[in-house]
């Protein structure tokens, strides 16, 4: 077939493999989704399997939708070659019911069907994340209150709190309990796991402590390996020759330096200690007890060498001092960690901590039980329940549900298998077949497993990888060719991870099986090197940047501008991404990017309830509930609901009688409203009438109905249009409606219930981000976290490295790992202080390895997003002349990698990058190259810029911009251009030029915007019949989201429109309104043929043009704005299509529809043509398409 991909040998194996479980290790950019879709199609075509006989598990709902669309597209592709294939045709109808979903969606469907098997109330609802947090906190409250009634448990709780040093810190206590809840609830049989841990701690404490000591001893050996290397480097510089002090005698008197007797004595003592420890190390006898006994009775002072000032006067002597400093610091760390307390005493304290560990496990058991009961009482389930209840259902009644699905599913396909958790693995294992062969097909890349914080278990992938590689229990197929990135990006990525990723730190060896291989054919001569940008200083000293992030943002903005200019129009803003480890500093980036006029987007993950428009609605609700609330009432009066200014509010307060000075502001409004002579009397009366009206409405309607009424009453949606960031504001208001609707469905509520709910969220620091309004095709520079970037690709990636590696590891007092269970610090009751127990020390070491492994995988994801160029950005105090790369190449190398114990010493992501760049430069120098041209280090000077918009640092930006808007709409104009607006729509032009087909209106400059008619949001229309204009809006929305395919029949039309319901674009009610026959006529039209033949199709294209450029009679600045439904791009011209849904009520209108459309829309379409011709500099033809099937070409200039 034409356009058939040229499969690689490994891809073809992945498509055709069968008769066992199959694991596809698919590297970044290897085309795994394309392979998965083709495998599905071959199952349908060659094995006569139907799409509903496959279970296809995706990681996200968006991925499930995308998978369905790609399968549908593939079916149509094969139907084009074989249009009468009935089996293929049937797949289109079966696709709607196919099991293509996340595991959570599958579990929910299972629960909805078989809820009776687990005695679940069928009226259950899914609690949202905020309600889950509140219910969980309530459960902890109940458990702790119950403990307070038992004297023995109170003593245990007191000891537990003292041991953790959190006696007066309730927030930390709740966090510790919640962490434990999520750790254990992620396990299939969590109750048995907890009981087993309690059993071991109670009855096998010696074996438990011994196991923890083995972990500590492994780390101790790594620490000493570093110590041996550092002392050797110090000695080599001191003796000025290559030697191995650990194993050979050294005559320090042969040093070229003049050494004192004291220096020689201390040095020889260090040599004696190093050689003794090295001998134990070689014989595997170096352990915590031995080291503790050696160092416990001596101090660091006994090993401290004093280096004279005279020695440091030379560069060689200074190098000796620096090398000794590194050695001394490492020795200090070892002594503090392993000789701070007597070994036997430490063991005893560690046993004492076990009681607290048992108490904690029992506490978690009680919270799990209480939380489950509270959810059932409120008829709630959460996402963890999805998996547990589904597993219970599958196992119930001797597994008859599992038998049903085993018969149905010929194959289970799991995408992103590296992020599967233990619960999901258990469900899949219950559903899979075992006879005549197993039938699970798994696709993923363990190097991209970055969701351990969501209980993802990459070890599941690793275990299968290792077994299947030996042909045990399944097949392993590796897809290692990368079709995304240029060769320089791939070369550096391979070099980097070969040096830093292995089974110890990374959890998998980065070997030939894991490497990325260039798959794009010939490498481009324009390949751009990987660049490490170390920002060191400003170009002008008088410009000060308060934060490192500001330096980064300025550099990135300037670099993007330079690259776009140099590309001669080939690059767009969407080609650039800035990747950070965490989602912070968003406001700084927004501010700086705006100074350069760079279109920019970053998703806020917090601050929703602080948004001004959301605060305003919450204030209105508070006033409806109780008008005596002064602060929310005054806030409403000051807002764009009533436009009272400060002077007017003060006047109300002052003009009340002295006897009324203690009245609430609401009562003072009542007082003013009765004063017939007061200038604010009518406005105050209007406020009071409005409040009473809203209060009366609230008594008879639900919360979501009230919110719709408030939005309509104050025109809140419309009033956002004139404000900065209006689209985001409107989305936030719609989001608030959705939250009230969801809350209302789960509760029989009054206003105060919702107010308290939101207030408790704020009190508990439970926040959410603003509603996302970014379109996939938006031409903006994106700032995102590594997690958000997964699955995406960009021409240029700026990866910012200034973040700490260990910030999420070392803060936890209670550490939970599968290897150590729950661990607690030791507690000295006599002196009331805590310190590391043996088990908590072991747990921290395990967590450190796991955390660093995850961080390396995050780095892998970030680096593999880049197509053309990968650009690292970091900041250091050193200057270019101070960077001695060769000195950075000072780490121990084991099996061509930096030793794991060395990597675990790195503090920041940039340390890893520095080490690898150091090796690259070191290797280049060995063959007499200045450096490898594939990798550059640069020291950019950040240029000073004149901000384009002066910021008022004393006020909130949004408030400044809102005030400016209020000022603009309140300003009286005396110019003779009073009735000539600066911006006008094409519809306005039709009205002002005498086109009677459009209702004229007076240009309104008052502060009230009652005359502005805007599209009604979806949620405001739920209980109202659509007008013809609103039906037109609905059809525009449908057409905007429907694909342009070669052939679309009637069955496909309904399927395509139904998919818009599934993804939330339209509602079920709107689906029922859409006329499928009208859409089918469009697909059968000649105009649609022109769409298929166009070079490019652009939908919903907004434009703004200066009217004076297209109309010489306009002698003043005036912008014309409009929206083109469809723009077709051809070689020598453009064409625009405008959709129309005018009502055709009579046969006469139907017969004359073409002329009616020309009469009505010639003015509009001519304006469109003139505007676009002035912008595009080519001929533009215009067409009107009416959904009755009438097509009209509009001529005229």
Which short descriptors sum up this protein?
single chain; 1197 residues; alpha/beta; Rossmann fold; 5 domains; seven-stranded parallel beta sheet; six-stranded parallel beta sheet; 44 helices; 12% strand; globular; EC 5.6.2.4; DNA 3'-5' helicase; hydrolase; isomerase
Characterize this entry briefly.
50% of the residues lie in helices and 12% in strands. It has 1197 residues and is of the alpha/beta class.
| Head-to-tail CA distance between termini | 47 Å
**Spatial shape:** globular
Derived structural class:
alpha/beta
> What percentage of residues falls in helices of 4 or more residues?
40-55%
Number of domains: 5
Please state the CA-atom Rg, rounded to the nearest Å.
Answer: 35 Å
Largest sheet: 7 strands, parallel
Q: Given the structure, what is the number of helices?
A: 44
Spatial order of the strands forming the largest sheet = 13-14-12-15-20-11-23
Mean pLDDT: 82
Please mark out the parts with pLDDT under 50 across 5 or more consecutive residues, or reply none: 539-545, 946-980, 994-1024
Number of strands: 29
- How much of the sequence is in beta strands? 5-15%
Protein name: DNA 3'-5' helicase
GO biological process, one term: recombinational repair
Catalytic activity: Couples ATP hydrolysis with the unwinding of duplex DNA by translocating in the 3'-5' direction; ATP + H2O = ADP + phosphate + H(+)
EC number: 5.6.2.4
């Amino acid at each position: 077939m034409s356009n058939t991909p040229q499969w690689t040998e490994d891809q073809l194996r992945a498509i055709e493999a069968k008769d066992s479980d199959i694991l596809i290790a698919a590297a970044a950019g290897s085309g795994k989704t394309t392979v998965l879709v083709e495998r599905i199609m071959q199952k349908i075509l060659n094995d006569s399997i139907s799409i509903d006989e496959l279970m296809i598990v995706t990681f996200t709902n968006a991925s499930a939708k995308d998978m369905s669309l790609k399968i549908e597209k593939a079916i149509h592709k094969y139907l084009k070659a074989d249009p009468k294939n009935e089996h293929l045709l049937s797949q289109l109808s079966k696709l709607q019911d196919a099991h293509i979903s996340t595991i959570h969606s599958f579990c929910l469907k299972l629960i909805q069907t078989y809820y009776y098997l687990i005695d679940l109330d069928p009226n259950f609802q899914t609690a949202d994340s905020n309600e889950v947090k509140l219910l969980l906190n309530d459960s902890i409250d109940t458990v702790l209150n119950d403990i307070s009634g038992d004297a023995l448990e109170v003593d245990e709780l007191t000891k537990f709190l003292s041991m953790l040093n959190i006696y007066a810190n309730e927030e930390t206590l709740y966090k510790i309990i919640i962490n434990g809840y999520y750790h254990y609830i992620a396990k299939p049989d969590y109750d048995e796991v907890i009981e087993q841990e309690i059993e071991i701690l109670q009855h096998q404490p010696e074996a438990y402590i011994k196991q923890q000591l083995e972990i500590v001893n492994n780390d101790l050996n790594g620490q000493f390996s570093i110590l041996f290397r550092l002392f050797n480097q110090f000695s080599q510089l001191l003796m000025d020759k290559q030697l191995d002090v650990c194993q050979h005698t050294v005559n320090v008197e042969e040093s070229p330096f003049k050494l004192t007797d004291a220096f020689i004595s201390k040095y020889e003592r260090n040599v004696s200690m190093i050689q003794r420890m090295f001998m134990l190390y070689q014989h595997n006898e170096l352990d915590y007890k031995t080291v503790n006994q050696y160092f416990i009775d001596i101090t660091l002072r006994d090993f401290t060498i004093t280096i004279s000032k005279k020695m440091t006067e030379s560069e060689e002597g200074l190098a000796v001092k620096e090398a000794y400093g590194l050695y001394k610091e490492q020795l200090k760390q070892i002594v503090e960690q392993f000789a701070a307390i007597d070994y036997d005493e430490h063991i005893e304290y560690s046993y004492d901590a076990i009681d607290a560990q048992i108490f904690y496990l029992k506490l978690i058991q009680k919270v799990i039980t209480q939380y489950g009961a509270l959810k059932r009482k409120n008829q709630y389930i959460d996402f963890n329940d999805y998996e547990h209840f589904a597993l219970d259902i599958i196992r119930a009644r001797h597994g008859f549900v599992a038998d049903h699905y085993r018969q149905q599913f010929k194959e289970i396909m799991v995408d992103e298998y590296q992020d599967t958790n233990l619960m999901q693995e258990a469900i899949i294992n219950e559903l899979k077949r075992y006879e005549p062969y197993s039938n699970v097909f798994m696709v993923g890349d363990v190097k991209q497993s970055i969701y351990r914080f969501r209980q993802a278990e990459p070890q599941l992938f690793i275990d299968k990888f290792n077994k299947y590689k030996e042909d045990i229990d399944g097949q392993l197929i590796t897809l290692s060719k990368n079709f995304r990135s240029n060769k320089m990006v791939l070369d550096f990525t391979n070099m980097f991870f070969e040096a830093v990723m292995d089974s110890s730190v990374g959890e998998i060896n980065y070997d030939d099986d894991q490497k990325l291989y260039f798959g794009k054919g010939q490498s481009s001569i324009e390949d751009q090197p990987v660049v490490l940008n170390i920002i060191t200083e400003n170009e002008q000293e008088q410009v000060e940047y308060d934060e490192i992030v500001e330096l980064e943002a300025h550099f990135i903005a300037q670099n993007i501008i330079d690259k776009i200019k140099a590309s001669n129009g080939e690059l767009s803003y969407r080609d650039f991404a800035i990747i950070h480890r965490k989602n912070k500093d968003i406001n700084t980036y927004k501010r700086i990017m705006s100074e350069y006029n760079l279109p920019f987007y970053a998703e806020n993950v917090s601050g929703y309830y602080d948004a001004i428009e959301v605060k305003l609605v919450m204030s209105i609700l508070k006033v409806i509930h109780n008008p005596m609330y002064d602060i929310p009432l005054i806030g409403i009066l000051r807002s764009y609901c009533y436009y009272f200014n400060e002077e007017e509010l003060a006047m109300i307060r002052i003009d009340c009688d002295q006897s009324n000075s203690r009245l609430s502001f609401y009562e003072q409004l009542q007082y003013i409203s009765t004063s017939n002579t007061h200038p604010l009397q009518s406005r105050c009366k209007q406020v009071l009438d409005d409040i009473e009206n809203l209060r009366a409405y609230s008594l008879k309607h639900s919360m979501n109905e009230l919110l719709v009424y408030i939005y309509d009453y104050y025109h809140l949606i419309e009033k956002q249009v004139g404000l900065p960031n209006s689209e985001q504001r409107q989305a936030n208001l719609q989001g608030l409606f959705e939250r009230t609707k969801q809350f209302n469905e789960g509760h029989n509520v009054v206003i105060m219930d919702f107010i308290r709910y939101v207030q408790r969220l704020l009190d508990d620091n439970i926040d959410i981000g603003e509603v996302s309004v970014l379109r996939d095709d938006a031409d903006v520079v994106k700032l995102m976290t590594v997690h958000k970037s997964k699955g995406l690709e960009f021409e240029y990636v700026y990866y910012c490295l200034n973040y700490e590696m260990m910030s999420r590891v070392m803060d936890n007092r209670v550490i939970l790992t599968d290897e150590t269970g729950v661990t607690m610090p030791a507690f000295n009751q006599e002196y009331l202080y805590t310190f590391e127990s043996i088990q908590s020390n072991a747990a921290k070491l395990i967590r450190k390895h796991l955390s660093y492994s995850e961080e390396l995988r995050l780095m892998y994801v970030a680096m593999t997003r880049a197509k053309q160029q990968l650009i690292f950005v970091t900041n250091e105090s050193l200057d270019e002349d101070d960077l001695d790369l060769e000195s950075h190449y000072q780490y121990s190398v084991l099996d061509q990698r930096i030793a794991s114990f060395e990597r675990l010493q790195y503090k920041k992501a940039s340390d890893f990058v520095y080490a690898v760049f150091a090796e690259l430069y070191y290797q280049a120098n060995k063959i007499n190259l200045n450096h490898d041209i594939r990798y550059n280090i640069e020291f950019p000077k950040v240029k000073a810029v004149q901000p384009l918009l002066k910021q008022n640092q004393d006020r909130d930006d949004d408030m400044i911009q809102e005030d400016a808007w209020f000022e603009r709409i309140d300003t009286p104009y005396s110019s003779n251009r009073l009735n000539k607006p600066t911006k006008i729509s094409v519809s306005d032009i039709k009205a002002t030029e005498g086109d009677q087909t459009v209702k004229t209106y007076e240009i309104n400059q008052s502060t009230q915007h009652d005359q502005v008619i805007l599209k009604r949001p979806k949620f405001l229309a739920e209980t109202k019949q659509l007008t013809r204009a609103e039906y037109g809006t609905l059809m525009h929305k449908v057409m905007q989201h429907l694909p342009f395919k070669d052939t679309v029949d009637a069955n496909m039309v309904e399927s395509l429109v139904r998919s818009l319901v599934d993804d939330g674009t339209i509602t079920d009610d709107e689906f029922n309104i859409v006329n499928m026959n009208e859409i089918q006529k469009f697909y059968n039209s000649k105009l649609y043929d022109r769409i298929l033949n166009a070079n490019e199709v652009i939908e919903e294209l907004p434009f703004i043009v200066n009217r004076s450029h297209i109309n010489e009679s306009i002698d003043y600045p005036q912008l014309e704005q409009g929206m083109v439904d469809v723009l077709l791009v051809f070689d020598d011209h453009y064409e625009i299509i405008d959709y129309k849904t005018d009502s055709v009520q009579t046969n006469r209108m139907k017969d004359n529809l073409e002329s009616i459309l020309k009469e009505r829309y010639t003015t509009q379409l001519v304006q469109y043509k003139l505007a676009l011709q002035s912008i595009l500099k080519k001929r533009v033809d215009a067409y009107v398409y009416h959904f009755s099937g009438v097509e009209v070409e509009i001529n005229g200039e």
